[in-house]
Fold:
Amino acid sequence: MNEIVINLHMHTTYSDGSGTHADIVQAALQAGLDAVITTDHNVLVNGPAGYYQDGDRKVLLIVGEEVHDQTANPQKNHLLVIGAGREMAELAEDTQHLVDSVNKTGGMAFIAHPVDPAAPAFGEPDISWEKWEVENYTGIELWNAMSEFKSLMKNWMRAIYFGFNSKLVAHGPFIETIQKWDQLLESGKRVVAVGGSDAHAFRVSIGPIRKTLFPYEFHFRAVNTHIFTKQPLSGDFNQDHDMILDALGNGHCFIGYDLPAPTRGFRFNAQGKDSTVGMGDEIEINEGVTLQIHIPQRAECRLLKDGKVIKTWKKREICTYIATEPGVYRVEVYLRYLGVKRGWIFSNPIYVRD
Structure:
């Protein structure tokens, strides 16, 4: 399998971001990403998608859209639409119809920042997802980097402190989001988890100080989504675009916080009597399934079944577990960084069926 590192959920000057698509491409090249997916608010920007190259480095730019009902107050229930190939904002009023329409195009719909708390000191409302009755979306943005920063903005002093010390912000997905994801998985739904930067590259002025908070390149070195494909990137836009979206849609991916240490090389597989599968796949329990975990460096690894921790390993790189019961198995890995234990890797599940 080929591991491809992508960053998704970001905004340009076409909505409320401060940079252009060219700025994003340059930041992605500097950060060493393989692909980025832009998602401006309620507009599908035609034209920028394609491959970009600088010397021997190249990056694939995919254009999606973040759709929400602009007539609602507050404007909750944001949906990341990727691969639909057409404008979807006009369907935002009816969320179920929007999701169904995205599916008909062959695109994907991910719930954006499921938990996004208010920041009253800055006039920022709570824009969490509420329409959990909606069905058939592809997945959920388990870790949203900017929602985490927003949760720390209790007052101006804290906002300035964390804004100027951005490496201190990330600890992991909100517990409420993880719990909701586990509930969805336990109910029998296949829900793909992705990590989103929600990058805006905010430009602020405080007296004589001018600063860009959370530049694109910073985001691109932090919360990423690592996907697995059968073939390496070919350099052909259409082929690689479809291959990346197929891997995302099937959950062949994990969320990696690459700032403390690179997460490239993480693997979570299940070996059964007749087959070996990876994240996002199903396998029959038969006489037992061997779950195999490989971590890029020694860390704390937790194996969860149906949302509950069933095994924890400390300071391990290789972990093995014999599963004898059907269930939804996934992995969390934690690493100390700047004196604090932080979420490092969150896998998508392997579905062990009876």
Remarks:
- The radius of gyration is 20 Å.
